[in-house]
């Protein structure tokens, strides 16, 4: 649980950096952060358009090659690491190889999600983070304080989910 907590913190930090640090957003071709959304401050948007004309096609903001490279690079890296951990079970059981692969996965997934979240309004990203935190806390509390044992109903749950 501690490893998962560290992974969530690192991923949230990367998403926060891409969402709230304006120079990093500009490097991805997104206007500076404002709580009302990317286009809520028209003067700020026009200043961004004047200083970054390569980020616009007509009136549409388009991601640049850096954003696409980080997006697909993070996605492919995390996919390859998951395959390495799942298919080659010795990778998941040998310390410190397993921790190194989990670290690489966490950073790659954070880059992927950070670039992805950079193209959404900060309020939507904050709502998603809040909902995720609430679900994690609720499930942790349920698992910690309940006496209900769901291990015997794993087959029924699998059939129900399918």
Keywords:
162 residues, mainly alpha, two-stranded antiparallel ribbon, 8 helices, 72% helix, globular
What does this structure look like?
The protein is an all-alpha fold. It is built from eight helices and two strands, in the order αααββααααα. A two-stranded antiparallel ribbon has the order 1-2. Strand 1 and strand 2 form a beta hairpin. The protein is globular, with a radius of gyration of 20 Å. 18% of the residues are buried. The model has no long low-confidence stretch (mean pLDDT 88).
Summarize the SSE layout with pairings:
Blueprint: H1 2-20, H2 22-27, H3 42-51, E1 56-57, E2 60-61, H4 65-87, H5 89-93, H6 97-118, H7 122-145, H8 154-161
Antiparallel strand pairs: 1-2
Largest sheet: 2 strands, antiparallel
Cα distance spanning the termini: 27 Å
Give the rounded overall mean pLDDT. 88
Low-confidence stretches: none
Tally of contiguous helical segments: 8
Order of helices and strands: HHHEEHHHHH
Oligomer: single chain
Secondary structure: helix percent? over 70%
Shape: globular
Number of strands: 2
The computed structural class is mainly alpha
Strand content: under 5%
Radius of gyration, taken over Cα atoms and rounded to an integer in Å: 20 Å
Strand order of the largest sheet: 1-2
